[in-house]
Amino acid sequence: MSAMQTPEGRIDIRQLSIVLGQGAQAFEAVQGLDCQIEAGQFVCILGPSGCGKSTLLGALAGHLQPSTGTLKVDAVPVVGPSPQRGMVFQQHTLFPWRSVRDNVAFGLKMRGLGKLERHRAADEILALVGLEGFAGHWPDQLSGGMQQRVEIARVLVNRPRLLLMDEPFGALDALTRLNMQELLLDIWTRIRTTLVFVTHDIDEALFLADRLLVMSPRPGRIIEDLRLDFPRPRTTELVTRPEFARLKRHCLELLRHEDGQQLPRLNPLGLPPETSLPRFAL
Q1: Between 20 and 30 A from 258 (CA), which of 142, 177, 192, 248?
Q2: Which residues make Cβ contacts (< 8 Å) with residue 246, sequence separation at least 6?
Q3: Which residues lie across from 224 on neighbouring strands?
Q4: How far apart are CA 166 and CA 64, in angstroms?
Q5: Does the pTM exceed 0.85?
Q6: Which 3 state secondary structure label does DSSP give 163?
Q7: Which architecture, in CATH terms, is 11-84+160-259?
Q8: How many helices (H) and strands (E) does the chain have?
Q9: Tens digits of per-residue pLDDT, 208-233?
């Protein structure tokens, strides 16, 4: 898949607030968000559990409606789900009774594409995610990391303007998670779709993103907008650099200050005393 010639996927968020629940149980999940994301950017949303990260992603996907404010993609209001805004969750949602190829091609089948055309498209995307030889397998024959590759392929086959990812590697073991992070960067370099990635892992956010939006505890507000200019392509050597450690420390301070926690004593690298080197939190 080649890079798009005319970038699509610009996000405009204006005074966005979202209330969840009904009646006495209602609460404000996110409050007064203002943000613009350029087409083709890789943006990570970082924040503590329950801060509204997934709520914001659900609104971008069209599953949740704003209570106040506006949410637009390429100047068009988001009013419901669309294949142009694909979502990848932490746990895969593959159909166990369908082959890998048919899982990836399912959205194209629903859109009425013929079998030959949708299988050709599925095989192209499976090659992109490194699963050329697994089109005929069943999901339960794959490892967790491979299942997530299929999940990503199933979204990408629709050529979406936005790729939305909700802690997609959180359930994977450390080595598989590292491999998936590097694979995702490789895929994004090839397709350059707008990518919004939710995580509560500082290392993951700093390693992946062009830009990092840090959110406060609920009701979620954007408390920092960091531009990350680490050169690409990125390798895991990045996490041992002093500038990476400084940014990690800054993010820790933001999150702990918002949470009212006292900061621990630090070692000379600017990390908690139990950490001798900047860790890649996998």
Answers
A1: 177
A2: 270
A3: 214
A4: 15
A5: yes
A6: strand
A7: 3-Layer(aba) Sandwich (3.40)
A8: 7, 10
A9: 999 999 999 999 999 999 999 999 99
